[in-house]
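> call design_seq(struct)
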């Protein structure tokens, strides 16, 4: 237990910081794709936007995480060329219906979305009807089981009312993901190991820091998951069968480059910067960050924007087919997608102001 608590604290510190069903190999990834250029237009804000992470696009509204504001989420309505602030929700704090480190996810066609609070572990998840955003007394609270010395990251995919898939596992596990049964409280590994050769013994704290710090996104209607590591260019579609991982379809296969130094991760200079992904029922959208770790340290800007902005958007379907690759006319920090209209809403800068830039994808 003492070792578990030590590594839990270490983990919390680390957090602060083609058309033929093929994967994209290193040569293709680094510049041989045929890009379609797409121009965007900035929506005119009627008020200040306090964040750049678009967590959900639904019913012509954008839910944007605004951690620097009193309310942690802002709801913005798109009206023509304007972005109208409709309201905000979720108070910052440690009391009932309050959070410090929220994570919100959902699908544009569903009636609900979910919010978890992460402070080294997940204790509860809120289920929020979209009609009750501003009425927190109607939010449903789901108690999360005791982690049983597992280290879980705030990335959760809900298969059904009782089975959740979570990024993380026990420290001596060789697997990236776990299966959590809310009804029984049981937790079991999924057969999805860290890449490379791993002996099933000893603590694997650095591997957890690298591979469990990931996005885990579920297909809105099917039992398919998208796993995206936040470092390197490593992403896979995972097809779930009877609660276990069946077929795996690689999209990107460039592993993170790192080394373990005294149970701490050291990112190598040639490590690629990762992917930000969003999904709809038909497509997977990948915003590919441009720099290696060395290039990031040497270049504070990318095309006039901060070096964590990007302009390469690659789109797949859920069978792993490459649909298109776009070059945005201005780098963006984060984005959301209106799948019904094939519109991408990217957050970027106009001078020193946060703005939402709309791209109509061809």
């Amino acid at each position: 237990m003492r070792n578990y608590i030590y590594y839990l604290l270490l983990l919390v510190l680390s957090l602060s910081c083609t058309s033929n069903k093929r994967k994209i190999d290193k040569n293709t990834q680094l510049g041989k794709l045929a890009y379609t250029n797409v121009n965007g237009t900035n929506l005119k804000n009627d008020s200040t936007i306090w964040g750049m992470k678009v967590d959900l696009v639904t019913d012509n509204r954008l839910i944007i995480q605004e951690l620097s504001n009193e309310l942690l989420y802002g709801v913005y309505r798109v009206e023509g060329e304007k972005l109208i602030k409709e309201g905000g929700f979720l108070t910052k704090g440690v009391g009932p219906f309050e959070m410090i480190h929220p994570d919100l996810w959902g699908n544009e066609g569903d009636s609900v979305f979910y919010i978890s609070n992460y402070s080294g572990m997940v204790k509860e998840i809120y289920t929020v009807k979209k009609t009750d955003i501003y009425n927190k007394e109607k939010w449903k609270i789901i108690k999360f089981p005791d982690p049983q010395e597992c280290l879980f990251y705030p990335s959760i995919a809900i298969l059904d009312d009782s089975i959740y898939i979570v990024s993380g596992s026990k420290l001596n596990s060789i697997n990236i993901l776990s299966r959590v049964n809310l009804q029984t409280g049981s937790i079991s590994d999924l057969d999805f190991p860290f890449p490379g050769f791993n002996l099933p013994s000893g603590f694997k704290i650095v591997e957890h820091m690298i591979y469990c710090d990931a996005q885990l996104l579920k297909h809105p209607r099917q039992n398919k998951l998208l796993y995206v590591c936040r470092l390197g260019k490593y992403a896979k579609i995972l097809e779930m069968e009877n609660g276990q991982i069946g077929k795996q379809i690689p999209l990107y296969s460039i592993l993170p480059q790192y080394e373990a130094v005294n149970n701490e991760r050291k990112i190598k200079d040639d490590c690629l910067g990762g992917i930000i992904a969003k999904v709809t029922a038909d497509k997977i959208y990948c915003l590919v960050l441009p720099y290696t770790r060395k290039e990031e340290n040497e270049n504070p800007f990318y095309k006039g924007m901060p070096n964590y902005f990007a302009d390469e958007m690659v789109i797949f379907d859920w069978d792993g087919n490459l649909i298109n690759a776009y070059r945005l006319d201005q780098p963006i920090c984060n984005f959301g997608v209106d799948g019904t209209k094939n519109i991408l809403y990217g957050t970027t800068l106009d001078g020193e102001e946060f703005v939402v830039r709309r791209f109509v994808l061809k």
